[in-house]
């Protein structure tokens, strides 16, 4: 790239990623909204680039991050089962419940353990 050249980058829409992740994991926006503790109308606003704050916004953002990482390890069809299944790395809790409690770091550690083939 020469001086003065401008690169174009796609804008990052975390909201769209969260809605896409929620659709993969829950099947509907209503189920996603219920899990996140937000109004279903907020998922539409989120998809359009508006922020959702508070705990619901945190849950949605962390879900998007976890699903993004899971898709680098597993096929899309396996992701909902991984999130809704009992996980030994999480003391046999379901990752989706740990995420709902706001503990994305612990779930990411479980993803890493699975990626490396380390099982409790």
Question: What attributes does this structure have?
Answer:
mainly alpha; 120 residues
Task: Describe the 3D structure.
- The protein has about 120 residues and is mostly helical.
- It is built from seven helices and no strands.
- The chain starts with 13 loop residues before the first helix and ends with a helix.
Give a quick summary of the entry:
By secondary structure, the protein is an all-alpha fold. The protein has 7 helices and no strands. 28% of the residues are buried.
What is the 3D form? globular
Percent range for helical residues? 55-70%
- What's the mean pLDDT score? 86
How can the largest sheet be summarized? Answer: none
Gyration radius (Cα, Å) is 16 Å
Strands, total number:
0
Strand content: under 5%
Termini separation = 48 Å
What string, H for helix and E for strand, traces the elements in order? HHHHHHH
Provide the structure class. Answer: mainly alpha
The overall number of domains is 1
Discrete helix count:
7
Poorly predicted spans = none
């Amino acid at each position: 790239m020469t001086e003065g050249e401008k690169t174009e980058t796609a804008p990052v829409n975390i909201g769209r990623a969260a809605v896409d992740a929620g659709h993969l994991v829950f099947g509907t926006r209503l189920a996603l909204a219920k899990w996140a503790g937000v109004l279903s109308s907020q998922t539409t606003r989120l998809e359009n680039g508006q922020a959702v704050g508070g705990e619901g916004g945190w849950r949605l953002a962390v879900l998007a991050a976890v699903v993004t990482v899971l898709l680098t390890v597993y096929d899309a069809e396996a992701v909902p089962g991984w999130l809704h299944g009992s996980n030994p790395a999480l003391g046999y809790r379901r990752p989706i419940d740990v995420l709902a409690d706001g503990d994305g770091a612990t779930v990411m550690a479980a993803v890493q353990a699975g990626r490396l083939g380390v099982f409790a």
